[in-house]
Amino acid sequence: MRPYVLLVACVAALGGLLFGYDTGVISGAILFITKDFSLGTRLQEFTISVVLIGCIAGAAAAGSLADAIGRRLTLLVAGIIFLIGALASAAAPNENVLLAGRFVVGIGIGFSSVVAPLYISEVSPAAVRGALVSLYQFAITVGILGAYLIDYAFAPAGAWRWMLGFAVVPSLILIGGMIFMPESPRYLFKIGHDSRARDVLQRIAGGPQDSIDEERSIRESLKVKSAGFAAFKDPAIRLALFIGVSLALLQQVTGINTVIYYGPQIFQMAGIASATASILAQTLVGTVNMLMTLVAIFFVDRLGRKPLLYVGLTGMFLALTTLGIAFAQPHLSGSLGTIALTSMMVYVGCFAFSLGPIVWLLISEIFPLPVRGLGMSISTIANWVGNFLVSQFFLTMIQKLGRPLTFWVYAALCIVTIVFVRAMVPETKRELLEEIRVAPA
Ligand code: BGC
User: Which pLDDT does position 223 carry in this prediction?
Assistant: First the structure.
């Protein structure tokens, strides 16, 4: 792989870093915001979830924008939105401005969750596409861990404005970086700027023959002139949409964000008494999440997407089942507590090399070029809606169903996901983007 491609992917992956940072940072900041603005429970919950509403709105707008003004500019706009949102929420004189700022941040996250993987996937040579899109997931996990650590550092001073404002730094790097990055060659061919497209392709392709092959298959795929929603009349494109939406939803309903967002609470249920210790345990979760993503980076193009999904989902299933069993015991002490904690780590670790990166990867791969932005947008909306539902109802589920059953529900959904992957998902390893088909021709 050329170092240039790696650079382009790294800059775009900053969109993922901001995604992770801005979703993670609120968990620590909320304690102090609640105090400063004297928030009741309802407003407190809304301050946390308003960002997810922004994500849904941003994801809805991003695909059409990426098809209209290009991937590069949309990612640049995402950077600017992140910047405005971070500044507004850090300087917020009152709760209303804070809510507005967090909503704007959400739009930025929604934008980058559609466009960053899409852009990376389109600039990557087929042989390393999996690794480079997994790099985006890696950046998400770096952002989440970074947020936990920044929260931890600023907590003694109660400095929530610094916690939220810190996102300015990666936003500026993203904006500055994207000014110099090339537009996706696929997008350039799509809008008829052939010579610029060829130029970019030559800079990123593995060798001259590769760039000729890629150009040929991109041109082939552009023969299907289908615009906007009308394209979904085509059964193959409808099937791709069904797979994309389902995968995006399954990534969430198997419960990852219960641990990412509510980790300290679950740790306390598992017997870690002090708040500080459980926040520290949460940084361990963040570290496992980050390190295990490297497994995907190394293996996703060698072993393929589906084998990693099978292994990861099986591990998640076993860990969740064990967690449920531990919580089903009358007293969770001593070794049971350790088993519960280990299960949580195993669960997160298995997600990190499978469902985490590979869902973003697959939904950036399965749509034909003419509808890629739109298809990714709709799938990503489903992802954020799923995220919203799980994080809104997790505590209610614990109350109504009890702890064991709640985790067993997520475990059962891992099995559903395995069956779904087996039946519906194509193996896309090393295929040129344009040659990927969701169903046998
Ligand atoms: C998911 C997020 C999750 C993160 C955890 C991402 O792939 O989309 O919802 O918080 O992984 O690392």
Answer: 75
Q: What is the distance in A from the centroid of ligand 1 to the CA of 356?
A: 6
pLDDT tens-digit series, residues 93-109: 999 999 999 999 999 99
Of the candidates 248, 244, 353, the one whose C-alpha atom is nearest the C-alpha of residue 293 is 353
Residue 425 near residue 247, CB atoms below 8 Å: yes
Å from CA of 151 to ligand 1 middle: 19
Give the CA angle between residues 297, 301, 303 to the nearest 5°.
Answer: 100
* Angle between helical axes of 95-123 and 129-154 (0-180°, round to 10): 160
Most trustworthy range by pLDDT among 189-203, 303-317, 318-332: 303-317
Q: What is the DSSP letter of 303?
A: T
What is the C-alpha end-to-end distance of the chain, expressed in Å? 31
Look at the chain and count its residues.
441
Report which secondary-structure segment, H or E, holds 308: helix 305-328
Q: Which two tokens stand for residue 414?
A: 């891992």
Taking 70 as the threshold, does the pLDDT of residue 260 lie above it? yes
**Residues 421-430 pLDDT 10s:** 999 999 999 8
Average pLDDT over residues 276-304: 93
- Nearest CA among 74, 23, 40, 2 for reference residue 374: 74
Question: Which of 426, 424, 372 is closest to 184 using CA atoms?
Answer: 372
- Pocket lined around ligand 1, Cβ cut-off 6 Å: 137, 140-141, 144, 251, 256-257, 260, 289, 356, 383, 387
Q: Cα–Cα distance between 369 and 435 in angstroms, integer?
A: 11
Q: Which atom of ligand 1 is nearest to the CA of 140?
A: 12
* Model pLDDT, residue 232: 83
Backbone φ, ψ for residue 255 (5° rounding): 90, 10
